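tl;dr need the bound structure. longer version: we got a ligand (6-O-phosphono-beta-D-fructofuranose) that a collaborator sent over and nobodys looked at where it sits. i said id run it. heres the input, straight from their email, havent touched it
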Amino acid sequence: MIHAHAYTMLQPLAESMRTQHLKNLFTQDSERFKSFHLEKEGLLFDFSKQKINTEIIDELLNLASEQQLDTWIERLFNGDKINHTENRAAWHTALRDVSTPNPDVSKQWHKMESLVNQVHQKQFRGYSGKPISDIINIGVGGSDLGPLMVTHALDKDKHEHAPNVHFVSTLDAQQLHKLLKSLDPATTLFVVASKSFSTIDTLSLAKTAKEWLEEHAPNHKVVMNHFVGISTNPIKMSKWGILPEHQLIFWEWVGGRFSLWSTIGFSIALRLGMQGYNDMLAGAHAMDQHFKNTPFKQNIPVLLGLIGVWNTNFLNLSAQAILPYDSRLKYFASYLEQLEMESNGKRTKRDGTAVTYRTCPILWGEVGPNAQHAFYQLLHQGTERVMSDFILFSQGISQSDQDRANYHHNLNIANCLAQSRAMMTGDINEDLHKNYPGDQVSNTLLLKKLDAYHLGMLIALYEHKVFVQSVIWDINPFDQWGVELGKELALNIFEHIKAQSVDGLDSSTANLLKNIWKQRHEN
Ligand code: F6P
């Protein structure tokens, strides 16, 4: 358990809350929403459908104080080296703080702006002299998911001269090959995005892209004009051949999964224009200010994080569903999977000892209406208790009351509210096949509309939620040592494949390889 007085106080409260049905909390207090919602500039956080009361919230706030959340927030915003296992800061908030611009950040921002303008104004030309029509962002993890998610979400607001933007991340190169079949090499620009510039997935795809261009371009020299590189490592970029004027830099103090605010956001800026990109930064900055300056009781990321801790450590829930009711947020759950699970999927405390309590739950999700016809059965009648976040926008893609889009948006709203209500109340039926136990907790995040500003707020909200939880759990959310072993072993197995040898491999791996080699030569 976490050694804090509040933690001990919360345990008996959890005991009694576990036996309460969520719907009874609404019967006991018909104005429950009033006590358990918060608002900030077009973002409303309804946490009334959680198994909480004011006493529990007060103790959770005490827990935050005992874990010194205020000091940690200060250290985060000061750029202290709070990622102690890598001896780095985690200073993504500085990237969106336009009021006190960091000179290094400004320099790269201007370089990025200039490249974006060149593309939009058709001054950036390929080897045949034609302007660039298509961008392919090659990157994986944080160098892919953020820009992919945002450009998809905000496509309606694309810049009038925006090129087509595509994303390629899969190591098997199938996405890339499919794209290359339909694109014109003379008008295609590749963006090689990699914080380390050493990720094999990205570099192998970039190499294939380079070979494709070399097959079509008149000479090798012009090929490099079709590449922009984004990394913290200019030496590696230069070695690979990225021209200095096409290198966008960011810094070790920007974590990969927090990097869409840095020059990794280049493809976002290309698609939305600099104005859209800046609006997103402004929304995130507004959330930063709220997080930094608002008393914990009214602080949305703090409460969102603490409620997650309550569900995980006291009500023993180990799964979290992300359910946006807007297809423009198709990639939001994937984005959060990395943000939350790569950050807080840890079992070692800051001091190097093992945790004795649960940390990050399993998080997954899908666009709500589609998920209703896929996995909601488990949410309604399965044996797992799951916490859900419903995300809904008041305004749909059209503001006109008459049109068809509005009709669909109303249906969408009705479904979102119906599902969170059904999960809360359930429905008693003597026939157990038709019985809904209900009592499934959820948050609803209601935003005015899906634009760059509000999306920036939403992303920053989840970033800070993750940070709050890491402080309570006393873990470092900014490293990811757990993914290194797999990379090392892959290199080792790759050597075995090249040598056609299974020497030294365990019997499962060795026999799987042997079967792969056998099956490869079969019809
Ligand atoms: O393997 C995990 C990871 O390091 C992520 O943290 C990161 O976002 C991704 O790989 C890509 O890394 P890079 O941007 O250095 O290519």
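gonna send this back to them w/ a short note. Residues 140-143, 194-196, 199, 202, 256-257, 342, 480, 483 surround 6-O-phosphono-beta-D-fructofuranose (CB under 6 Å).
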